[in-house]
Write a structure and sequence with these properties.
Shape: elongated
Number of strands: 17
CATH class of the largest domain: Alpha Beta
Strand content: 15-25%
CATH superfamily of the largest domain: Phosphoglycerate kinase, N-terminal domain
CATH architecture of the largest domain: 3-Layer(aba) Sandwich
Largest sheet: 6 strands, parallel
Length: 399
C-alpha cells in the first residue's frame, strides 16, 4: 500500500502536487476540462489543510519553439481559478528566480501553478527523460510530494519519479480512485467479465489482450483493430486499417482462445472518412476492395449486446468506430447507451474512449471513467507504473 495525501500533516508545508492538466485545447481554448475537474478534490483537500499548494503538469509535447506557445498552461490556470473560486498564481517559468521567489512568498492555502513541465524537453528532454538534476531541483521547491497524475503514472519523468526520489511522498485522491476501480479487474471481477477493445492498432493492445484473455470471460473486438483480426482469419478487408506486424499475434490468440475472442459480423463501409462519403452496411465477407470499414453495424450490435447484457463487469477501451465523424459514431453511441443501462460495474479505460463517452453525454453514467488511457492499459497488462512505484510505502507495525 502506498502512502496517500491523508498520511501527512500539510499545515504550513509547501506541497508539490503533480496533476494531469493535459487537456485538449483549440486556439488557446480548453475544449474539455474533465482532467482539471478530476484534480479538484486533492487540491481542495490540501488547501483546507493549510498547505501552500504548488501544482505541476505537462501539456502536449514540446519538440519545437512553436510548441511552447501552443502548449502554454496559462488558460488552464484561468480555468482552475474559476473552478476553485480563489486566486491561482501562474508562474510562466519552470525554474529560476521568479519561480523561487513566488514560492517563498506563498501563504497557507495559496495555490501556484508553474509553467508546463515539458518546456524542459525543448533542450534535451529533461522532463520526459527524468533528468536527475531537474528532479532534484523541483524537489527542492517543496516539503512533500503528492502524485495525482494518473495519466502519466506509466512514465518515469522528472516531475513524478524524479521528485518522489527526494521527498516524502504519497498519492492523491484521483490516483487512489483509479486504483480502486482498476485493480479489482485483475484480482476479483464479478462474473461474467467482458472486455471490449477498439482503437486503431492491435500492437498497442497486445499486452493487455495477453493478460486479460486469461482473466476475462469474453473479449469483444471492434474499432480499426478488428480488421487485422479479420485479415488473420482470411477475410478481405479492402482499404480498412491493417496492422500487418500484428497478424501473427492475431492468428495465434484466435487459435488459443476461440471461444473467448468475438469479432464483428458486419460493419459500416465507406470510401473515405468524411461526412460526405456514401456509406453502406456490409457483412465482413462483403467489403469491397475500394472500401474501408469505419463502424460496426446492426448484426454486430445484436451479437455484442447478447454478451454485454449478461455481464456483471465490463471494461471498455478504444472507440469501436471513427466516432469523430458523425456518420461513423453510431456504434460508439449505441455501446455507450447499452453500457450505461447495465446493472453491472462498468469501467471506461481513458483516452479517446473517455472523450467519446463524455462528449456523448455519459460522463456520470458509468462506475468509473479513467483519466489515463495508456496508464490504465499498462496497469491491466500487469505492469508496475513507475509514477506510483516511486511513492513511499505505508509502514505497518508488527502485531
Amino acid at each position: 500500500m502506498k502512502k496517500t495525501i491523508r498520511d501527512y500533516d500539510l499545515k504550513g508545508k509547501k506541497v508539490i502536487i503533480r496533476v494531469d492538466f493535459n487537456v485538449p485545447m483549440k486556439n488557446g481554448v480548453i475544449t474539455d476540462d474533465n482532467r482539471i475537474v478530476e484534480s479538484l478534490p486533492t487540491i481542495r483537500y490540501a488547501i483546507d489543510k493549510g498547505a501552500k499548494v504548488i501544482l505541476m503538469s505537462h501539456l502536449g509535447r514540446i519538440k519545437s519553439q512553436e510548441d511552447l506557445e501552443k502548449n502554454d498552461l496559462k488558460p488552464v490556470a484561468v480555468r482552475l481559478q474559476e473552478l476553485l473560486g480563489q486566486n491561482v498564481v501562474f508562474v510562466e517559468e519552470t525554474r529560476g528566480k521568479n519561480l523561487e521567489e513566488a514560492i517563498s512568498s506563498m501563504q497557507e492555502k495559496d495555490v501556484l501553478l508553474m509553467q508546463n513541465t515539458r518546456y524542459e524537453d525543448l533542450e534535451g528532454k529533461k522532463e520526459s527523460g527524468n533528468d536527475a538534476e531537474l528532479g532534484a531541483y523541483w524537489a527542492s521547491l517543496g516539503d512533500i510530494f503528492i502524485n495525482d497524475a494518473f495519466g502519466t503514472a506509466h512514465r518515469s519523468h522528472a516531475s513524478n519519479v524524479g521528485i518522489a526520489s527526494h521527498l516524502p511522498s504519497g498519492i492523491g485522491f484521483l490516483i487512489e480512485k483509479e486504483l480502486t476501480h482498476l485493480e479489482p479487474l485483475l484480482t476479483n471481477p464479478e462474473r461474467p467479465f467482458t472486455v471490449i477493445l477498439g482503437g486503431a492498432k492491435v500492437s498497442d493492445k497486445i499486452g493487455v489482450i495477453e493478460n486479460l484473455v486469461k482473466i476475462a470471460d469474453y473479449i469483444l473486438i471492434g474499432g480499426g483493430m478488428m480488421f487485422t483480426f479479420l485479415k488473420a482469419q482470411g477475410y478481405e478487408i479492402g482499404k480498412s486499417l491493417l496492422d500487418e506486424e500484428s497478424l501473427d499475434f492475431c492468428k495465434k490468440i484466435l487459435e488459443e482462445y476461440p471461444n473467448k475472442i468475438l469479432l464483428p459480423v458486419d460493419c459500416v463501409c465507406g470510401k473515405e472518412v468524411s461526412e460526405d462519403s456514401p456509406i453502406r452496411a456490409a457483412l465482413i465477407s462483403d467489403i469491397h476492395s475500394d472500401e474501408m470499414g469505419l463502424d460496426l453495424s446492426m448484426r454486430t450490435f445484436d451479437l455484442f449486446k447478447s454478451y454485454v447484457e449478461r455481464s456483471k463487469t465490463v471494461f471498455w477501451n478504444g472507440p469501436i468506430g471513427a466516432f469523430e465523424v458523425d456518420q461513423f459514431a453510431t456504434g460508439t453511441k449505441v455501446l455507450c447507451k447499452e453500457l450505461s443501462e447495465l446493472d453491472a460495474t462498468v469501467v471506461i479505460g481513458g483516452g479517446d474512449t473517455a472523450s467519446a463517452a463524455i462528449q456523448f453525454g455519459y460522463k456520470d453514467k458509468f462506475s468509473h471513467i479513467s483519466t489515463g488511457g495508456g496508464a490504465s492499459l499498462e496497469l491491466l497488462e500487469g505492469k508496475d507504473l513507475p509514477g506510483i512505484s516511486a511513492i513511499c510505502d505505508k509502514e505497518y507495525e508488527e502485531i
